[in-house]
């Protein structure tokens, strides 16, 4: 993926200029602006400085749910600071695997009237491993400026590479004198731009490299000099660009001439000194951490594989596997089409696809494994990949396949685990394409990782279906009608993990003028939590319907749980509503306090003294709190997933929720719940389950 350098004074001028100025003023070596795509689930790289778009390709799109600094900045609405490589390895192992260089970074949300995305800034590791208050305030102020410019309609697109001006020197001055100076130095000197291309070579460098300047200028060393065509050497260049620290290495120019190459980077490119091995150079500035200790990664497409392999270990369901292949693996290998098939009952069932018309998918779906229509069945049965570089090659063996797909080149990658076929991944191309041996090897290795991810994902989806069905069966399908009371409820699973949990709610009719409302949260997000939730709800319902008081309801349910010894604890809030008297009695087992909004629009937390969580102490007590519940009042019961935000005090979160409740329109309770969720969970990403139960006392 390429990117062109632009002048900030273009149609994108104000946004680009503000971005470039932020990167320059804060002293960052690399900056990137990510913007949310329309669906709000993916961050797309839009502006970049200090590196090439090709170098940033593995991170051009980042899922908001991903464990990455820019995603956390958006999801948690906070500035994320990573001060060292060690901290990166601990906090973001996937990012550290793909960025094994000593550096520091900050990611900050870009938000104003709405959330736009995140600003990413990177520094060499020789800066202090902490951020000052002044730096933090400057970054936050700059993010507000970027948000304002975006709200004013700054254009999208990209990624665009924006120069910051730092490190660029005037072309004027004694150019010839400088050239003479370089020529007098021992050894050779050359310069690379940030894309790795030669921009200058001294005669000494040409002699040592064994090529004329006109053969090298504009080329990359690992492409024009075959003896430097090694991923380890390209990785030294990457290390210099990303860490902004000097890097040195030795390489052998055939047949037996060893050279030392010393790279000195800055914001404009890299200066390289080349000397025969053993020749002494003036000591280079010692980096705080030696980049010689960096473990080399693969270059080019192989470099993508590091990132993709880490990503494949984190996918959850089959849909995640398909999205990852489509969003990252297809672009990395230039594919325009994808078909992912799985073996099911002796047939190839298409699980996901991209770049194919519906009629083609309909024709290809459910083919027998023994089909002669496409190579997919044979590739999966034999476990041997099949590559077709053009339509004629495919037509000779499978004459019917080409007209159906309309593609011109294919890679059929069997997905096999321990000799057991689980599916076939097909990458296809609109134009003929050669598949060199090294690319075939990479794709074959990647297929093994996809197979493992797909197998895990199918198992997860099966478990999830079972657990989700269990949970839905245990939650009330409808709430009973109670005269004088309007009610609405909502359950939202976590957006990570099994998408199930132990949050529950219920409304129990107790005669003509009374009702009981209950909400609770069982610890965990798995089948055990969902099952225990059903037991708790049943226990509460059984005790409530025999006319016991709120403390007795919780006491009886608590004894049931301690007898069951489930090793999971449950918070619960029970409210008895006496509509005839306009009164409510509440008891809590370690649950967040409900919110009461009166007819005049004022809202406050109800001061309910909580008892311990259910299932811990068999003889626990649960104090009862009485409050007025007059006509026009609204009572909001909720679980902690609605209010818990990392780094934010719980009391402040509850006060914020009360503020939102006070300003909400209570004429439509479903719309009121939507409004609260939009304000409390604006990104839609939930680290915990959320349950809400809203009860509005009708005016007389």
TrEMBL record:
E.C. code: 3.1.3.16
Key words of the record: ATP-binding, Hydrolase, Kinase, Magnesium, Manganese, Metal-binding, Nucleotide-binding, Phosphoprotein, Protein phosphatase, Transferase
Known function: Primarily acts as an independent SigF regulator that is sensitive to the osmosensory signal, mediating the cross talk of PknD with the SigF regulon. Possesses both phosphatase and kinase activities. The kinase domain functions as a classic anti-sigma factor-like kinase to phosphorylate the anti-anti-sigma factor domain at the canonical regulatory site, and the phosphatase domain antagonizes this activity.
Gene Ontology molecular function: ATP binding; kinase activity; metal ion binding; protein serine/threonine phosphatase activity
Domain PAS: start-end pairs: 182-218
Domain of life: Bacteria
InterPro entries attached to this UniProt entry: Bact_Sigma-Reg (IPR052016), GAF (IPR003018), GAF-like_dom_sf (IPR029016), PAS (IPR000014), PAS-like_dom_sf (IPR035965), PAS_4 (IPR013656), PPM-type-like_dom_sf (IPR036457), PPM-type_phosphatase-like_dom (IPR001932)
Gene3D superfamilies: 3.30.450.40, PAS domain, PPM-type phosphatase domain
Position of the signal peptide: none
Name of the top EC class for this enzyme: hydrolase
Organism listed in the record: Streptomyces glaucescens
A family per Pfam: SpoIIE
Catalyses which reaction(s): O-phospho-L-seryl-[protein] + H2O = L-seryl-[protein] + phosphate
The protein's name: protein-serine/threonine phosphatase
